[in-house]
Amino acid sequence: MLKDKILKIIHENKLVNKGDRILLAVSGGIDSSVLLNIFCKLKKDLGIKLHAAHFNHGFRGKESDKDALFIKELCRKLAVPCTIVKMNIPKLLEKEKSVSVQDTARNLRYEFLMKTAIKYHCNRIAAGHNHEDQTETVLLHLFRGCGTRGLIGMQYIMEIANGITLIRPFLEISRKDIEAYILKNKITYREDSSNFFDYYRRNHIRHNLIPLIREKYNPDIDSSISKLCKILKDENDYLNKITGKYFSEIVKKENDKFIMSIDSLNRLHPAIRKRIIFDVLSELKGNINAVNYENIESIEKLSLNKTGKKINLSGDYTVMNEYGNLVFSKKIDDFPLYEFKIPVPCNTFLSQFNIKIKIALKKKFSKAYIENEKTIYFSIPDKPDNFIVRNRRHGDRFIPSGMKGSRKLKDFFIDMKIPVYERDKIPLLLYKNEILWVMGVRRSDKYKAAEKDKNIIEIKIEEIAFAT
Description:
Number of domains: 3
Mean pLDDT: 89
CATH architecture of the largest domain: 3-Layer(aba) Sandwich
Low-confidence stretches: none
Number of strands: 22
CATH superfamily of the largest domain: HUPs
Structural class: alpha+beta
Strand order of the largest sheet: 3-2-1-4-6-5
Shape: elongated
Largest sheet: 6 strands, mixed
Number of helices: 15
Distance between the termini: 61 Å
């Protein structure tokens, strides 16, 4: 009996715990109608509470509206609370010709399910994917090009986010068994007319390719695919464990950036190397479906290139080779040009650079005056009333302390291995249009205070952090 078979699957795979609140994803089709029916019969034995959710995509006009009315009435009869939302996706995508309609619909549907689960305190979302759906999914992934992660297909249980888990109790239940249950229990359901057309790739695979495989190559292709998924899942779990170990060793997260050691990355086996890059991109973009093999290959090639090179990825993301590291980040707008007149003396905070600057006058030099990256002393004969603090400009030059002659500020930054994305954020101290201090990095030897000098100017910066 199908109900008992589902109960066994739930217990063996620990899909449900007593006290769980289950959100049932109900389309009104044959699979989700059986899902709703069986969970209503099992809820007392399992000690769970149910809530149904239906997402009306608006693809089939009045037919879609009738689906929603059908579900509303069905849930009323079964005494299951139900949330229904309607969205006109075709209209939404009128101006987005390059976007996949099916991918968009799926993403919006899962977004709705997540929001509904959170609203009604559900910790499980149950979907009615069956044995044949698994076969179709794996073949779709294979034809698109995928690795182990794609070939393991759908899983019985999968953590999503916010403590919510997606469960698929029908994953090894055949469509034939579901149809038999429908007939035996006289369950009504809605037929999605779009399932009969081969316009969508999944439908074409279902109606044409899989029947051909069953006839010519393997009559039990679904079981073979299921076996493949189980084998690859174990291997994938093992690789994930290894990848996680190295990820924590070679990848650092700083604010919204991921920084990865190139040497450490390139010492790894290619399989682990690619997985680490995949994981970084997935976390950066927040979506594993936004990562493709071409992205990973181009980043591997970038790691072999010279510093300063970068690649741009879709979705406004960039990866840069910076002084032995790969820096993954979202593209940011050009840092604004800032310039401030700072009086002498003063004690002020420059929020644009995230620094507090304090300028004090000293009557004479003392050996106790020790310079460091945050404290500098100048002796300027004409006693300036103010300094200028700004960020860099094209063509800036600087005479770094300990070096002979002026250098382009750009070249100095390169020598100091300061990443490109940080250079516009570094404050510069100027007097009479001359850079006296790359603040927090290096001073100029000009106007350096010495013994016997009088009218010393002490400049301190506190809590320096390059602005973001």
